[in-house]
C-alpha cells in the first residue's frame, strides 16, 4: 500500500504530507523528529489506518517539503505549519503522535488551540529544551555563536555519498537498533540522487538553534492550556531520556520508559511502541 501525497502552503513554504486510510475515519497526524521524514512512520501508519485516517507530515526543511526561505527554523513556524495541515485536512479534533522535535511541536500546538487536539503521544518531545545544553551562558556569547553558526551553515555543502549503500550504512551507524530492512526503507525515502551520488533531503539549516534560551515560563503557560490526554514515551537507552521539565504544567498525562530502546523508540521497539499507542488511543474520550 502506498499513501496519497498532498500539499499545502504555509508562510510561502510548500509542505508535503501523505495520507493513509479512509476519510470517514477520525484523523491522526504523525510528526517526525529533526532530520527525518514522513515515510519514517510507514509501519505505524499501516498499523493504524484501518481505524484512523493517518496523515504523516514532512516538516519544513525535511523530506519533500520546501526549505524555509533564509534558513530559519523555529518551533513557532513548525506549529504554524501544523495548523495549516490541520486546516487542509478540514476535520477536528485530531490526534497527534510525534517524535522528538515533532513532539515539541505537537505540545505547542495542543496548548495554543486545545479544542483542535484530541490526544497527544510525545516520544521524547521535551528533551534539549535549553539552547546549547543546561549551562546558562550570557546572551552576547549565545548571539555571537549563532552568527558564526549561521555563516558556517550558509557555506556548508551537503555531504554526497558515492553510492546508495554508503548512505544506508550511515543510516545504520546513526541507530544501531535498525534492522537492515528498516534502514533501507528510511534511506530510500530520505535521500535525493544528485550528480556524483546521493544526499540527504533535509536542509542543513535545520541544525541551527535560536540564540535565545528556551522560555520555560511561556512554555508552561502554553502547556497548562492543554486539555487533551498526553502519553510521554522515552527510551531507557536514550541520550534524551533525562529531561529537566517539571511535569506539573500538564494536567492529564502519563509517562512510560521503554527498555532496550534509544531515542527512536518507535523504530527500536516497534511492537512495544504500538502496544502503548493503541492502548492510549482506545482510552481517548469521544
What is the CATH topology classification name? Answer: Rossmann fold
The CATH architecture would be 3-Layer(aba) Sandwich
Helix content: 25-40%
**From the alpha-carbon coordinates, what is the Rg to the nearest angstrom?**
18 Å
CATH homologous superfamily caption: Alpha/Beta hydrolase fold, catalytic domain
Class inferred from helices and paired strands: alpha/beta
Integer tally of domains: 1
- State the end-to-end distance: 29 Å
Provide a count of the helices: 9
Descriptive notes:
- The protein has 286 residues and is α/β, with parallel strands linked by helices.
- The protein has a single domain, classed as Alpha/Beta hydrolase fold, catalytic domain (Rossmann fold), CATH 3.40.50.1820.
- The protein is built from nine helices and ten strands.
- The chain has an eight-stranded mixed beta sheet, with helices on both faces.
- A hairpin with a 2-residue loop joins β7 and β8.
- α2 packs across α3, α3 packs across α7 and α5 crosses α6.
- The longest helix has 16 residues.
- The radius of gyration is 18 Å and the shape is globular.
